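User: My instructor asked us to take a sequence, write out its structure as tokens, and then describe one feature of it. I'm not sure where to start. Here is the sequence I was given:
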Amino acid sequence: MATPKTLPLVLFLMIVLILLFVPSNGVERVRVSGSTTVMPLAELCAEEFNFMCREYMVTVTAGGSGVGIIDAAEGRADIAMCSREIKPSEKALYERPDRRFREILVGYDAIVIVVSPQIYDSGVGSLTAREVRMIYAGEIRNWKSVGGPDREIMVVGRKAGSGTRDTFNEIIMGSAAAETPGVSIEAMDSSEVKTAILGSDRAIGYLGYSYVRAGGVMPVALNGVDPTIDNIRSGNYTLARKLYFYTFGEPSAGAKAFIDFVLGPQGRRIAEMNGFIPP
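Assistant: Let's start with the prediction itself. The structure tokens for your sequence are:
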């Protein structure tokens, strides 16, 4: 039994527990997890959505497309952010007859090949898919081989679990599970790739389109096609892709409200203002 001396401490702990585990004013929390490529769009939309809405509170965390799918399937997230389509293996692991993943297209994107400004300025403004594949396979190791300076190439890739990595490997290397022995550095997310590229005078990497629109790194044409909005939407750019939200089963009321906001006029405006291409 609590004594008069311990009672204030007990009350304090009870208040802390209430604040931690019970949403204030009956607000329903909507948890969004997954792709670092989709995350900036989800965060920007969540900021405005949370300001306008008093019924729901959206929180966004990253970790990669695969993490988002697992979080949604195992109940740690209401929405998974993905920069790729869900894999058959993920469906086989979690889906059952009465509960399946639901796919929502939230935008178009592209994986853009970027190089250090010094390499771009030296004349490397375009690469073929074959040249990029040979660089990541370790078969081309010097910029001189593709019309650049006599300088060793620093190759930046992405860590396992990244939807961006899976798509790049599938389209450029021939398989999502392909090895890339030419890679010098494996980055956790697109922001780390950008930092590595800008910190070197000899690097190549790949980023989501929105990160390139923010400036700094230099995008190169792929197979002679620039990563413009028209080329991405039309699919003419080789590394064009779609961005998704996934829910496991029917979305909750809060998740549906946020999805509708992202797909509505306000979400489209936010997307266009920040380098994303709305559907």
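For the description part of your assignment, you could build on this observation: The CA atoms of residues 240 and 258 lie 25 Å apart. Try explaining in your own words what that tells you about the chain.
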